[in-house]
């Protein structure tokens, strides 16, 4: 039996009423350009199927863009999906409804997924496939010093799941050369007619890993600066 089946609208609202009564915040989760955005929010009102939340300014901007947010409470075993009814950017009040536990969540709400703004060429080398060139789609860091790369490669690239591969590329903002040795975990042969998409997870030498972490941190800062500008524009009515 699905352990989340018992969590219907009424059960979720009962938990949020307890948060309201005890003045305990929930956490709202969103992403903005691949960067997780998660702040505590106060439950200000629970009425029938509508909940009022006092949210962080950046969260209101994310909710505006995504038209969805995810509510986290220790009393509920999974994230609750909710859709905005209205957003007051000045008072930071978000009214949400359609509360439910979704079957799946496509966005990674906990880990930064960086997509370079410019083309980053990746050299793919293996004992099986020789040297080929692809382009970097996204970059993320996982647990245990693992780096995950999504690479767009030619459809003729002879890589399959569990193949060893060595990747070399330059970071776009400072030109640092990074080398990652890893394993192909996923192959999407149906990306386009002449391309395939590879997901590679592996590790790099310490200095290369430091370069990747520093690049991700710089990109996170840049994205959050953009989000700050978006919120200010929303508050002053410059974005509908």
Lateral arrangement of strands in the main beta sheet: 1-2-3-6-5-4
Q: Tell me the distance between the termini.
A: 44 Å
Overall number of strands: 12
- Tally of helical runs: 3
Task: Give the overall average pLDDT.
Answer: 92
Determine the structural class based on helices, strands and strand pairing: alpha+beta
What series of H and E elements makes up the topology? HEEEHEEEEEEEEEH
Q: Level of helix content?
A: 10-25%
Q: How much of the residues is beta strand, in percent?
A: 35-45%
Q: What is this structure's SSE topology?
A:
Blueprint: H1 9-22, E1 26-32, E2 35-47, E3 50-54, H2 57-66, E4 69-72, E5 80-88, E6 93-100, E7 121-126, E8 130-141, E9 147-154, E10 164-170, E11 177-192, E12 195-204, H3 206-235
Antiparallel strand pairs: 1-2, 1-4, 2-3, 3-6, 4-5, 5-6, 7-8, 7-10, 8-9, 9-12, 10-11, 11-12
Helix pairs in contact: 2-3
Q: Could you characterize the architecture of this molecule?
A:
The protein is of the alpha+beta class. Helix content is 22%, strand content 44%. The chain has helices at 9-22, 57-66, 206-235, and strands spanning 26-32, 35-47, 50-54, 69-72, 80-88, 93-100, 121-126, 130-141, 147-154, 164-170, 177-192, 195-204. It has a six-stranded antiparallel β-barrel. Strands 7-8-9-12-11-10 form a six-stranded antiparallel barrel. The chain is elongated and about 65 Å long. The model has no long low-confidence stretch (mean pLDDT 92).
